[in-house]
C-alpha cells in the first residue's frame, strides 16, 4: 500500500477500492493499538474537535491552520456520522496518522461505535458506496483501537466527553480495556459521553442517556488532584465553535463542524497551543454548499 497514493486519492475525494480500504484500516489499527490509552504529547500542537464527516471543512482546517507534517494535531473524536463524507474523513486522518505517526493523535469519540453508526449515517453511506457492509465491520474494528485521551506537557488533558465519578486520576483511565465497543455505562462511557453543566455541583445523570453531567466542584477537584491546568473536550454543539465553562478558562469545549449538519448557524473552531502553551483560538466558517461536490458519490446500488 502506497500511503501517498492513498492520501492523494482521498484528497481528490475519490472512493477507495475495498482492498485499499481494508488495508488502510488494518494498518491504522496496527499502529493505534500500540498507543497507550492516554497519549503523551508535547507542544506546539493544534487541537480539533468533532468533524462529523464534513470532509471539505476538514480540508479547510489544514488550509487555514497548516498541514500535518508541518504541524502536530490532536483530534478529539467524532470523525463520522451527520455529515456526508464519513469514510473520507476518517480514512484521510488515518492515512495522515500512518504517514506522520508522531504528528497526529486521534482520540475516540462516542460516534466511533457500531450502534451510533447504524443510525446516524456511516452505515447508510457504506451501503450507498460499497456493494456490502463489510467495510462497516472493518471500520468498527479500527475504532476499537483508538486511544481515549491525550496529555499535553503534563498539564492539559484532552478527551472527547468529560470526567467521571468513577475516574479520580488519569491512571484510572490507563486501566480501562479500550479494545472493545463503547459499553453502556462505566468509566469508558463517561469519558466519551459526559458534559460540563453549570446547573450541577457534583455529578448528575445526563439527558443524553449515557455519561453524566459534571459540575464545577468536582471538575476543580479533578484538576487539582491531577495537576492539570486545562481540560479540552468537544462533543457539544457550540454556536461560537468554542466555549469556556464554569466562568473560568479551565474547561474548554472545541467544536469543529461549522454549519453543523449543513444546516446549523454555528462556526467551527480549533485551538493552537504554542511551545509555552499560550492559547490561540481560530474560528472558521463552513465551505459554501455550492463548493461541495457530490458527483463522486456513486448511485445507490439496487
Ligand atoms: Mn460526541
UniProtKB/TrEMBL annotation:
Catalysis: reaction(s): O-phospho-L-threonyl-[protein] + H2O = L-threonyl-[protein] + phosphate
Record has Hydrolase as a keyword: yes
Residue span(s) of domain Serine/threonine specific protein phosphatases: 107-112
Keywords: Hydrolase, Manganese, Metal-binding
InterPro entries in UniProt: Calcineurin-like_PHP, Metallo-depent_PP-like, PPA2-like, Ser/Thr-sp_prot-phosphatase
Enzyme Commission number(s): 3.1.3.16
PANTHER family: SERINE/THREONINE-PROTEIN PHOSPHATASE PP2A-RELATED
Family as reported in the entry's similarity comment: Belongs to the PPP phosphatase family.
Name the record gives this protein: Serine/threonine-protein phosphatase
Amino acid at each position: 500500500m502506497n500511503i501517498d497514493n492513498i492520501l492523494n486519492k482521498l484528497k481528490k475525494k475519490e472512493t477507495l477500492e475495498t482492498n485499499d480500504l481494508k488495508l488502510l484500516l488494518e494498518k491504522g489499527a496496527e499502529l493505534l493499538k500500540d498507543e497507550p490509552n492516554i497519549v503523551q504529547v508535547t507542544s506546539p500542537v493544534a487541537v480539533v474537535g468533532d468533524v462529523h464527516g464534513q470532509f471539505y471543512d476538514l480540508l479547510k482546517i489544514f488550509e487555514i491552520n497548516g498541514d500535518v507534517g508541518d504541524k502536530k494535531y490532536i483530534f478529539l473524536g467524532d470523525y463520522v456520522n451527520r455529515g456526508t463524507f464519513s469514510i473520507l474523513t476518517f480514512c484521510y486522518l488515518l492515512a495522515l496518522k500512518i504517514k506522520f505517526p508522531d504528528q497526529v493523535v486521534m482520540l475516540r469519540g462516542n460516534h466511533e461505535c457500531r450502534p451510533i453508526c447504524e443510525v446516524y449515517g456511516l452505515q447508510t453511506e457504506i451501503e450507498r458506496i460499497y456493494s456490502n457492509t463489510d467495510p462497516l465491520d472493518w471500520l468498527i474494528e479500527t475504532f476499537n483501537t483508538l486511544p481515549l485521551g491525550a496529555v499535553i506537557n503534563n498539564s492539559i488533558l484532552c478527551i472527547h466527553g468529560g470526567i467521571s465519578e468513577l475516574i479520580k486520576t488519569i491512571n484510572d483511565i490507563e486501566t480501562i480495556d479500550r479494545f472493545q465497543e463503547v459499553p453502556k455505562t462505566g468509566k469508558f462511557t463517561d469519558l466519551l459521553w459526559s458534559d460540563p453543566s453549570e446547573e450541577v455541583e457534583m455529578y448528575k445523570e445526563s439527558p443524553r442517556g449515557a455519561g453524566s453531567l459534571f459540575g464545577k466542584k468536582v471538575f476543580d477537584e479533578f484538576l487539582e488532584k491531577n495537576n492539570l491546568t486545562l481540560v479540552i473536550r468537544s462533543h457539544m454543539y457550540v454556536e461560537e465553535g468554542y466555549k469556556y465553562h464554569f466562568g473560568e478558562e479551565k474547561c474548554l469545549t472545541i467544536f469543529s463542524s461549522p454549519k453543523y449538519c449543513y444546516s446549523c448557524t454555528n462556526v467551527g473552531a480549533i485551538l493552537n497551543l504554542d511551545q509555552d502553551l499560550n492559547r490561540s483560538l481560530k474560528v472558521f466558517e463552513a465551505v459554501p454548499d455550492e463548493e461541495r461536490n457530490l458527483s463522486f458519490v456513486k448511485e445507490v446500488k439496487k
